[in-house]
Amino acid sequence: MNTENPVKTREDLLYLLSQAAELEHSLSCQYLFTAFSLKEFTSEGVSQAQLTKINRWRRRINEIAVQEMLHLALVSNLLTAIGGAPYFRRANFPQAKTYSSLKLQFKLAPFNETTLNRYICFELPNSFDNEEQRDNWTQFCQRIRDEELLALITALPKPLIPRKIEYNTIGELYELIRQGFETIGEKLFIGPPDAQATGIFREMIQVKDLNSAMEAIDLIIVQGEGSPSRRDDSHFTKFTKIREEYLTELQSDPNFQPTRPVIENPLLSLQQDNTTPGANIITDSLSRDVAEILVALYEVMLQILLRFFAHTEENEEQMYILKSAFINLMPFGISPLARAITQLPAGEDFPGMNAGPSFEVYADVQLLPQMSSAWIFFQERLQEIAQACDALINGSRTESYPQLREALTEVSTAQKKIAHTISLEPNGGSWTNGISQLFSPMDIDHMKRIPRFRVDLGDYETVKNDADAILNSVSSRSMPLLPEGPWTEARINLFKNWKDSDFPL
C-alpha cells in the first residue's frame, strides 16, 4: 500500500469516503446487472441440473450486491459522523474513471469468465494465508489490469490534477480510511448522533465514536476481501468459487451458456460523462419504454435512500416509512423489471441480442432538502411510474410478452401501494385508509410463504381474524415476524385502535 500520503485531516477522510461511496454504489450496480443476465428457465437451453447451478450463482451474486449496498450505507454513516453528507453520485456506465490506481474497468457486463475475473480482482485481499497464494493471485490480477488498460489506453482522459491519495485495491482504500480514523481520533466526530441511520440493513452500525467507526470499517473489509481467519464467506471467495464451478461445467459441456444474450453497457442516451467507448444505445421502442420505467424507479429509489440518510424533521414513524419504501423498491420494482428487460430485444443494431438494465442517472442524485416537498415528490413519481406500467400493460405491444406483462403488473401494484404509504398526513383508522397500508408488498409476500402461517396480509377478513396474533408479532422486539422488523409505537397503536374499534372497513 502506498504510504507516502498518510491520511491526516478530515478533508482527506471526506475525500476517501466519497470515493468509497461511489465505488460501492458502482460495484453493486455491476454485480446486479451480471445476476440479472443469468437464465431463469430450462426453456432457455440449459438442463435442470445446470439451472440449479445458475440459480445458486445468482443468489450468491445478489447477496454480494446487497452487501455492497450495506457498505454504501455504512460509508454514509461514517461520512455523517465526521460532518460530511451521504454521497450517492456516480458516473454512468461504462465509466471513464478507474478509481485511482485500481486500474479495472467499471462497466455493465453479463456473466462470463472475463466478468468474474474482474470481480475477483475488485475484491482481491491485501493478505493471504501463504506467500505462494498471494503471489499467484497478485500476478493473476496484474494480467487482468494490463489487459483492461491496454483496451482503454487511448480512451481514458488524462487527469488535469493528480489524485490526492492512491490505492491499488478496495482493501487498501479502506485501510487508508481506517488509518485516517485512528490517526485523527475522537475529534473527528462532529456529526449529531441522531443523524445516524439504522434499521435499513440488519448489520447496520451507527457511527458515533472511534470504536463504532472501526467496527463499520472492519465489517466492510471482512465481507469484501475477508480476513485470514474469516475468508470463506468473503466476496473474493464467493466469486472464486463461482468461477471454479462455471469453468468445471464448461469442461463437461463446452456448449454450456448460462447467460442470456445481453448487450454490455446498455443506455437510453449518451450523456456528458459517457466518454469511454463501449456504451450501447437501446433502440427497440418497447425495450426503451421498459428501460425508462426502470431508470425512473432506480432514481427515485436513490432519492428516497438519500432522504433516509440525510433526514431532518422526520419522526420515528416517517423514518420507518422511508426505510420500508426503499426496502420494497428493489424486489418489487427494480428486480422484476430488470429480469423482464433481459428478455427483450436490444434493437435492430444488435441482431439476436437483448437489452438490459442501464442503472443510468440523468442528473446528480441530490438531496431533496425540504421534507414536505420531498415526500410529495416521492409519492408523485411512484404514481407516475405505476401509470407508465399500466399504459404498457394495456397496449398492444406487450401482447407477445406475457412475462413482461406479469412483471409490469407486479411493479404497478407495488408502486401504488408504496406511494399510498408515503404521506405526511396521519393515516385514518379504517382498513381502506390506514390499516391496509401498514403491510408492505414484502410483508404480504413473506407471510404467504411461511408454511405455519400462510396469512394474506392484503385481505381484510384474514387480518381481522388473525388480529391478535399479528399484533403480538409486530409488537415483539426480540422476534419480529415481519421482514422489516418491529413496528413503531405509532403504527402499533393505530392497529390496536382499529382492533378495539371493531375493525372498521
UniProtKB/TrEMBL annotation:
The Iminophenyl-pyruvate dimer synthase domain, residue ranges: 17-243
Listed InterPro entries: Ferritin-like, VioB/RebD_dom
Gene3D superfamilies: 1.20.1260.10
Pfam families listed in its UniProt record: Ferritin-like (PF12902)
Official protein name in the record: Iminophenyl-pyruvate dimer synthase domain-containing protein
Source species: Mastigocoleus testarum BC008
